Amino acid sequence: MKVLQLTAILIIQLISVLIFCIGFFPSKNVLEGDAVFEISSDAQLNAKPAFNKLVLVVIDALRSDFLFDQDISQFNYIHELSNNGYAWGFTAFSNPPTVTLPRLKGITTGSTPNFLDAILNVAEDDSSSNLKNQDSWPMQFAKHGKKIRFFGDDTWLKLFPHEIFTEYEGTNSFFVSDFEQVDHNVTRHLEKQIKEKNDWDALILHYLGLDHIGHKGGPTSKFMGPKHREMDSIIKNLFETVGQDENTLICVMGDHGMNEVGNHGGSSPGETSAGLVLISKKLKNFEVPSDQKGVKLPIKSVNVAPEEDKQYKFLTQIQQVDIVPTLSALFNIPFPKNNVGVMMPSILELLDPKLFRIKLQENFRQLMIVSNNKDIRQLYESYDFENTEIKDIISEMKDIQGELTSSATNYNVPLLYLGLGLIFILTLTISFWFYFSVLEVDFKNVLIVIISLLIGLSSFASSFVEEEHQIWWWIITGLITVSAINLPDQKIAHLVMFVCVRIIRGWNNSGQKYSYDRTISILLNTEYEDFQWYLNIATILYIMLKDSTDNLISFMFSYNLGSVCILYKVCWTIINQDHVPEPIYKAAIYICRRLSRDYSLQDISVVEENLIPIARFFFYSVLAIVIAIYGSAKLKLIKNPIKDIQKTLTFLLIFQSPSSYIGLFMVYDILQSSLSSLLVNQYSSNVMITSTISLVLQYFTFFQFGGTNSIATADLTNAYNGVSEDYNIYFVGFLMCVSNFAPAIYWAMFPWKVIYNQIKPNNKWNVFAENKLPIVYFNCIAGCFLLLSCFILRYHLFIWSVFSPKLCYYATWNIFMNLIVGWVLEIAVLSMVDK
């Protein structure tokens, strides 16, 4: 009965969180329809545009320093163009969330992003985020008879109706291990487009390779320099062909930047500082922007103290959405209806002298309509556009823009109240149940209450949310210290635990404020690459052989999974052109050649040919082994199915983890062995203590695995293992969750062999409920505080950059870790225990 009651509480908790999220992340109200010229419409319609042909080159994750900083930029031709007066450079602030889909919405409609677009960014078959009924400059181009051709990231084809493009081809944006072919698939169209330059008015190119390099190796990857030069040569080709006509504008820009790890999605200076360059022969005839006067590119950046953030501010700083009214003005089309951008002051001199004040007034009027604010309307109606200084008009519009971007969301308050009310009632219910279930007030029972309140209260402080890993570090070390004091005769066991958690702590960067250059994983990837691979093989052999040598079937299962796992990881590394020790390299190539039976292919080609089949074989093997274990358990051929299931799933977790993290699983296993021995022998397999330790280690290892409360650290690298281009988004989503929550899943399985191995079959569901009670209690308490903090702080400066991602992680953790792993998977495993 307890299981059913707990399940009901879990379901109601999920419903309350989802209701709150629906109210917190509503679909933004937008003005539908297409804009038209409202002020002196005849004069605007008959005016000659500053340019009649546009080439837009979007280089995904093009951070501002990649274009302008002497220490890192290799865009030498762009530097030359700028120094000769043909290019104007800008640092464009991109509003978070800094992922492609919401940023493309921003640079085409001029609107502020909807936070949920960051989630929809990975849903390739989702159509709820398209711009079919929303005004944008591409739609205005098409409406005014301009012919658009597009090649690149297929997110554009997801956003816009295909009819607006006279020719197009999309490339997939999520195979992050590919940073050559994905760009070649765009560049191969250039020769034809250049020959047919009179047949189109706008050419849009979106390159993904630089972003993929960032995800793989960060902004200082050895592949970054060659990619800069490749992109620079493409700009040179375009300028020396299409760009020779002074009525052609080439716009090179990033949709967002990246942080020092190479990820994006958050609000750090590196992620929000995108580069932008306007290039045209016509610009030579005009005065460069004031911030660019006397500046020669590349710029020597100013060193900052280690504790300070690098700001990435180069040349003129603008809002990225300002590109929308700027392009609209230069090509003489109406400003999109939902635009909150302000024309760049530096381009006004390119407009017809009789026209630029009309364009400014049109821009002001359009901001007034979007704001729907009575005071702004009165200000507009009383404004003297003819005699007011241009800089004053721009300043006024910038103030309005600031208000619009800071109040972009209309919350559904009734749903927020409903979600909060449900989880509050649920929290009271579970608190009374918890109190009457445990009755005895001692440290082991009070511990989960203290942890729940500590994490819950921390959700009101943005710094604690950003650095949550610090809290879990002090919790785990505190627990080991208390246990060491309580059991002074177990010094060795506690020393092993301290060493293990310290190694886990130092393995990776975590948190959002600080990044360290000499973590264990970084050293393994840079200075000790050979040792990394021998450690990886040792880890897999250790897990393969442990508890398997006494059972032939178990050993065969482990041998199969371990061998395929290490082969795939080596092949993956070879394709990514990272270092592999020569003996291991030769062995992998030999095996791949035997598998393909084609000895004529080059090494890299034969590995590429086998990569997806090897991954799929691994997944099929996992599925077959799980089924075999289940059947063997039912037939009583295996005495301990839980042990075999745990080992099988551990190999799956290793398979879905980066190569430099594999060694962590040996540390996990050593820590688990010490903990298991202590809990069984010293704490009598106490369910409350075991469940609490499991919960703490789930969160501690999640954060020390590189996870944070920022979307920027959501790792997609292993989400496409074994996946071809015609992939299933649900399977990819599942692999992404397994990859990002791998250590948490490992420690969620930890209680199984501690509390289930010795139980009587008729008591297993009571033990299951006892195991889940503190976890459900924690999630209700922590969730109640988190939802309350999001409600109270919904107008806080950091609501979208700090608290909203935390809410998304909380919801995902509840669905995946608590429902799927903690409930569905654990019940399935427990059903194997004999009745």
From TrEMBL:
The chain crosses the membrane at residues 7-25, 415-434, 446-465, 471-488, 552-575, 617-637, 649-668, 688-706, 727-749, 775-795, 807-833. It holds the Pfam family Phosphodiest. Pathway: Glycolipid biosynthesis; glycosylphosphatidylinositol-anchor biosynthesis. It is found in: Endoplasmic reticulum membrane. GO terms for molecular function: CP2 mannose-ethanolamine phosphotransferase activity. InterPro entries: Alkaline_phosphatase_core_sf (IPR017850), Phosphodiest/P_Trfase (IPR002591), PIG-G_N (IPR037674), PIGG/GPI7 (IPR039527), PIGG/GPI7_C (IPR045687). GO terms for cellular component: endoplasmic reticulum membrane; plasma membrane. Residues 408-832 form the GPI ethanolamine phosphate transferase 2 C-terminal domain. Keywords: Endoplasmic reticulum, Glycoprotein, GPI-anchor biosynthesis, Membrane, Transferase, Transmembrane, Transmembrane helix. One of its GO terms (biological process) is GPI anchor biosynthetic process. CDD domains: GPI_EPT_2 (cd16024). It is a multi-pass membrane protein. PANTHER family: GPI ETHANOLAMINE PHOSPHATE TRANSFERASE 2, PHOSPHATIDYLINOSITOL GLYCAN-RELATED. Belongs to the PIGG/PIGN/PIGO family. PIGG subfamily. Ethanolamine phosphate transferase involved in glycosylphosphatidylinositol-anchor biosynthesis. Transfers ethanolamine phosphate to the GPI second mannose. This is GPI ethanolamine phosphate transferase 2.
